[in-house]
């Protein structure tokens, strides 16, 4: 049995987590759960958005499956997701974007994996507010070490998964020092991977390329802000945030999460789509080398998503969250 930290999260989090647990149980995956509260739920229970028990649990079990967390808007609340990423040095944010067979979307031939640097860039947290001059400055930190780590992670992934091409995305024509460093490191690291085709694109051109020819891209690696935007753009190509998984990975700790938010507008109604959290759980199973269970769940999920009679409301169907889970289980072989 492998124990993982389970964070159901806020809003629709507990509903989609229940559905995912039912499906994981039916898959035969040998998992045990240490359930922990975070975010608004934890704040209400113990007055802390990131309780010590949660941090200790992640440090101990090293793998977490996380539902969405509500970040209260306003002064003094730093994003919990950003805090967890920085606390555990989860420098890789990985978003596989693959067309779901049978799900009608803009493109049906997308199969790329986006690697976003997760701890530096414009999200490093360096912001200065000059009250007198009414000017706000934000600083984007790009380090050689951080760039090497994420670009190597993308190249290693490409090599290990039989992918051929890695595209480094930057804005080195304008941000000559910061984005320039990322590009330069990309070119240096490329020398270590002679079997991969490693090229680069400027972010604005990349956005256009992605919405016109997403099928041309394979593994894509970029800095924090560009990656944040590009990863949602990719999600939009294949059905939106409701079907996209995400993972935050460091050298020894990994948090797998649904990339959508806590959906307060539908929380408690039992109609949320659990597919994104389920896809994150599938990534987690693969990370844990539980390949058989991962394949079983993935095939059943794809079969369910390709049947309009079996999907949830957001995808045009009539099924509530638990009915969807039951459909996935009945499609399991
Ligand atoms: P959201 O993703 O929660 O909702 C946007 C729209 O998508 C809503 O109409 C919602 O009903 C729908 N939706 C989202 N997930 C769905 C699902 N699984 N099934 C069916 N419909 C779904 O984004 P929003 O409203 O901007 O954010 C709400 C809260 O979530 C905020 O507090 C925000 O900070 C937090 N958030 C947390 C994230 C995380 O923990 N990874 C990511 C994004 C937002």
Short structural summary:
The chain has eleven helices and twelve strands.
Describe what this molecule looks like in 3D.
This protein is of the alpha/beta class. Helix 1 crosses helix 9 (275-287). Strand 6 and strand 7 form a beta hairpin. The protein contains 11 helices and 12 strands. The strands form 2 sheets. A 10-stranded mixed β-sheet has the order 2-1-3-12-11-4-5-10-8-9, sandwiched between helices. Strands 6-7 form a two-stranded antiparallel ribbon. The chain is globular, with a radius of gyration of 20 Å. The longest helix has 17 residues, at 144-160. The protein folds into 2 domains: 1-104 and 241-333, Isopropylmalate Dehydrogenase (3-Layer(aba) Sandwich), CATH 3.40.718; 106-238, Isopropylmalate Dehydrogenase. Residues 12, 16, 68-71, 81, 241-242, 257, 259-266, 272-273, 276, 314 line the site of 1,4-dihydronicotinamide adenine dinucleotide (NAI).
């Amino acid at each position: 049995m492998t124990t993982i930290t389970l964070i159901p999260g806020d809003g629709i989090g507990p509903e989609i987590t229940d559905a995912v647990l039912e499906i994981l149980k039916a898959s035969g995956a040998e998992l045990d759960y240490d359930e922990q509260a975070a975010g608004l739920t934890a704040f209400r229970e113990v007055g802390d958005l990131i309780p010590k028990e949660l941090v200790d649990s992640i440090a101990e079990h090293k793998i977490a499956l996380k539902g969405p967390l509500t970040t209260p808007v306003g002064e003094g609340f730093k994003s919990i997701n950003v805090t967890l990423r920085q606390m555990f040095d989860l420098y890789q944010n990985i978003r596989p974007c693959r067309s779901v067979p049978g799900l009608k979307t803009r493109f049906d031939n997308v199969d790329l994996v986006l690697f976003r640097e997760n701890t530096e860039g414009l999200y490093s947290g360096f912001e200065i507010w000059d009250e007198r001059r009414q000017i706000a400055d934000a600083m984007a930190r790009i380090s050689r070490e951080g760039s090497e780590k994420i670009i190597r992670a993308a190249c290693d992934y490409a090599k290990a998964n039989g992918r051929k091409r890695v595209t480094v995305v930057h804005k080195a024509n304008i941000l000559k020092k910061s984005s320039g460093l990322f590009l330069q490191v990309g070119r240096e690291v490329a020398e270590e991977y002679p079997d991969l085709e490693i090229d680069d694109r400027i972010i604005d051109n990349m956005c256009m390329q992605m919405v016109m020819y997403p099928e041309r891209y394979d593994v894509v690696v970029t800095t924090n802000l560009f990656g944040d935007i590009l990863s949602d753009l990719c999600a939009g190509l294949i059905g939106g945030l409701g079907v996209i998984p995400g993972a935050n990975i460091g050298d020894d700790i990994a948090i797998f999460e649904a990339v959508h938010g806590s959906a307060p507008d539908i929380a408690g109604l039992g109609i949320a789509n659990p597919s994104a959290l389920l896809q994150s759980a599938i990534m987690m199973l693969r990370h844990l080398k539980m390949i058989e269970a991962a394949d079983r769940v993935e095939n059943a999920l794809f079969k369910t998503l390709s049947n309009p009679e079996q999907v949830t409301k957001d995808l045009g169907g009539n099924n509530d969250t638990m009915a969807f889970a039951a459909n996935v289980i009945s499609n399991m072989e």
